[in-house]
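Exercise 7. Given the components listed, write out the predicted structure of the assembled complex. Treat all entries as one system.
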Amino acid sequence: MNKKLIELACIIDDDDIYINLVKRVIETKKLCENLIIFKNGKQSIDYFEELLLNLKEDKIPDIIFIDLNMPVMDGWEFIEHFTKIKNKFNKLITLYIVSSSINPVDIDRAKSLNSIEGYLVKPIIINELENIFKSA
Amino acid sequence: MTQIKMPSKPIENNIGYLELKNDTIYCSKVFLSDIGYIAKNKKISLDFFLNKLIHKDDSSQFRNNYFSFIKNNIDFRQSLLIESKKGKYKEFVCTTSHTQANLSNNNTKSKFLFFNKRKFKTNKKVNKHKFYYKEAAEMTSIGSWYVDLIKRKSYWDQQTRRILEYSEDYKPSINKSVSYYPKESYEQVKRLFLKCSIDGKAFSTETKMLTKNNREFWVRANGKPVFNDKKEIIGVRGIFQDIDETKAKELSLLRTSNIIAAQNKRLFNFAHIVSHNLRSHTSNLSLVVELLNSTESKEEKLELINSVENIASSLNDTILHLNEVVTIQTSTNKSKSLVKFSKSLKRVKISIGQIITKSRTIINSDFSKIDTIDYIPAYLESILLNLITNSIKYKHPERDPIIEIKSYVENSRTILEITDNGIGIDLEKFGDKLFGMYKTFHYNKDAIGIGLFITKNQIDALDGEINVFSEVEKFTTFKITF
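Answer.
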């Protein structure tokens, strides 16, 4: 555990209960320094677009966990938008899908996208999450 | 003098051919000598060919075929009698060809008619043929008709009279043609008929007709132009075939397939809801359990048990929604009855009176065109309730909501239109998701994304249709076709 801790992680999910739980896991296990949370894709895209105008290294997350089913802008739309702008950040941002969907259509679609590092099916397993944070 | 050669690839056994150019007919030597004319005289006028050479019984059919071939490239094959110089009739089969001919002078595309001698003579069999035609027409329910555009008269054969249930001595007339069709098919047929009688465009269509006893039924209607020898269209000839039985089967098949498609879609939706929404609760539960196991602190454990309560309540909500969806699928055979739009609206207005007053919503309605519909009353109320509350929920922040509701008839189906002056919706972005479950598009706190999903399911379940028109910041119109 001498590796440096992840500075900033980002969770995009509309399920309050899930967010509370995951936050708890991250905090108790001290998986990262800071955490930002968005309730849907649109909110987070707005954040990233604004960030582009005024790049601040510490505001750019190292890792993003995104849900698929969300109001206003869903996960797919976010990924599409985000892929277009992510190179402008000059930083490696890892993108994970975290969804309760076990629909093969969703899983295959995620596999077909280069920008997706992995697909986690809810319920997330705490150990698995820990490993991802450590290896990122 | 034009030298005429046979087309590059002459068809075997052709005894002669005609080349058709600039309204003049050039005959081959073989053809001319076969009917006893001197081979030198290769050019003959169309008039002579139509009126002198061809037997008068075959002449008008040949003329129609000929002009359709020249004008519209419609091929034909016709057997006909041609009078030889000695006054004897010989039987030929005439077929068409567009062969690119190697003409001596130019390379223009020419049209040809080939004449073959018939192997056996048919005149003796004419009566027998007539019998076959009659039988065939009767068994296939095909009646033929002719409209004389010059005399403005129409003629039917007995089959047509029989199909349309008129007496044998009934005289059809052009003026009465409107009574042979239901309103909506009359316009369609009229258009095709006019096109045929003006541009000479033959038609073949499926349409509805009306019998004398006002029974609607499906026919296949074909028509083609009839020309005089000046290439003018003087009439339209065609057939009606009674295809009601087949068409009824086709339509019922289509309906069944639509129902299956709709049910399949609902099933898919259902699977999606189960996969996404039920699983999200159960996975939260598992996570809680995992956390409970990994922590020792009592405080934390208590907090986690609190969240179990939250999960249970949202799980309950989801199951209620699912239940609503399932209810729609199973209650389509609930009895329909005659409902009045005005009455349903009144009930809805009463049930959400507070919301309406609080939001200062004005609801204008006009059901003067049609007020009664055969429907499941609870559905109609639910549809109205959902759409009205939706309009209020998504009202424009700068103006009080005004909702216009009207009903009318379009293509013999009842339509209900609900238009508001709310914030509208970006259809290009959300159009395909608008009626999905748990889809919300606005940052509205009380948006759950269930209303429109239920509404659409109710309408679908009763073979209806819902469409939406909208402009962001201006209006949204929901159009329901019952």
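Discussion: The two ends of chain A are 13 Å apart (CA to CA). The helical segments of chain A are 16-29, 41-53, 75-85, 104-111, 126-135.
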